[in-house]
Design a protein that fits this description.
CATH topology: OB fold (Dihydrolipoamide Acetyltransferase, E2P)
Number of domains: 1
CATH superfamily: RNA polymerase II/Efflux pump adaptor protein, barrel-sandwich hybrid domain
CATH class: Mainly Beta
Distance between the termini: 14 Å
Largest sheet: 7 strands, antiparallel
Order of helices and strands: EEEEEEEEHHEEH
Number of strands: 10
Helix content: 10-25%
Radius of gyration: 13 Å
Number of helices: 3
Strand order of the largest sheet: 5-8-9-3-2-1-10
CATH architecture: Beta Barrel
Strand content: 35-45%
Length: 117
């Protein structure tokens, strides 16, 4: 598992990777009221905004951690079960599955041990 400097995480599983947000990114959010998608199932570049998480008047950007294609949105988000995402911010709280353009490229990603230290 790796993190970005913007506090998204990505977990590479062969040709697919799962991504979500760290608890640090949601610090100060008591709940997630809404997730807004920015053309979710498409090719994105690292750093592109893929979604926004909203709590009351606050909105934070969710950024693509690597170049690649978003192939799936977690059905929990589609079913609007947002508490499930905020309660499980690790692997079970993934938001998108991605097919990275280069599954071996870890440029600008932070290994979990370095991120947590």
């Amino acid at each position: 598992m790796y993190y970005t400097s913007d506090h998204e995480w990505i977990d590479f599983q062969g040709t697919v990777a799962y991504m979500g947000v760290s608890s640090f990114k949601l610090l100060g959010f008591r709940a997630i009221h809404e997730v807004l998608f920015n053309d979710p199932v498409s090719y994105k570049k690292r750093g592109d905004i893929i979604a926004w998480i909203r709590y009351q008047d606050y909105k934070i950007d969710i950024l693509m951690p690597v170049d690649g294609s978003i192939v799936q949105v977690n059905r929990i988000l589609l079913n609007n079960d947002l508490k499930q995402i905020s309660d499980h911010l690790g692997k079970s709280g993934w938001m998108f599955s991605i097919i990275p353009s280069n599954r071996y490229d870890r440029k600008n990603l932070i290994p979990v041990k370095d991120y947590l230290s």
